[in-house]
């Protein structure tokens, strides 16, 4: 465990530190991990990269990714773009960890549209990760481009990627007070998604849903946080909440499928035991 220097060092100083380290061959890697953990100044990290480039002629992929992580952590947009240009020139394809970092870094900046371009690039070589989509969705929502945000959301669902509550909450946070029947339809769609998948929003997410309803132009909604009675009745509006238990018909369907596909099925490994 080493603590990074507070100021940039010359190549000779870095070399001295490396020689005094008990495993010199992993010095740079350990040092960069420590820099990310301590959130070191970018110029300190840059001085180490310069030293590595001088002695090795180039910089290894894993070190560039660690430097990138530090840049993203500090919102250094121009550095993120420079590192991406270097990586693109040297490596034909990057792995998902690097794409996650670059897309996240650009999404949180005024160059957020570049993240969308990068997402298109990722699509050509792999299925983008949930993080890729969510970074772009949040960026579009933050800039009130809700149509784009929902387009990405539907694309994400079509690829069987499960959205986090964080990104679903962002839809309600950034749509507050906005007009439009289409937007309302989309947000009701998110509520239906929660209902159909029996996903229960946490308190801050509930608050966002409440505030969105109350902000609908021309609407007259009032929200209340309450505790539902064991009977399933709401103490505020006295409505009965729908039951999430299976109906008899659903239960019978499920039972038949299990008997047919699992118990009588041909795949022995799906059965509980050979007996």
From TrEMBL:
Ranges for the PPR repeats: 129-163
A Pfam family recorded for this sequence: PPR
Listed InterPro entries: PPR_rpt, TPR-like_helical_dom_sf
GO annotation, cellular component aspect: mitochondrial ribonuclease P complex
Superkingdom of the source species: Eukaryota
GO BP of this protein: mitochondrial tRNA 5'-end processing; tRNA 5'-leader removal
Any GO MF annotation of the entry: ribonuclease P activity
Gene3D superfamilies per the UniProt record, alphabetical: Tetratricopeptide repeat domain
Protein name per its UniProtKB record: Mitochondrial ribonuclease P protein 3
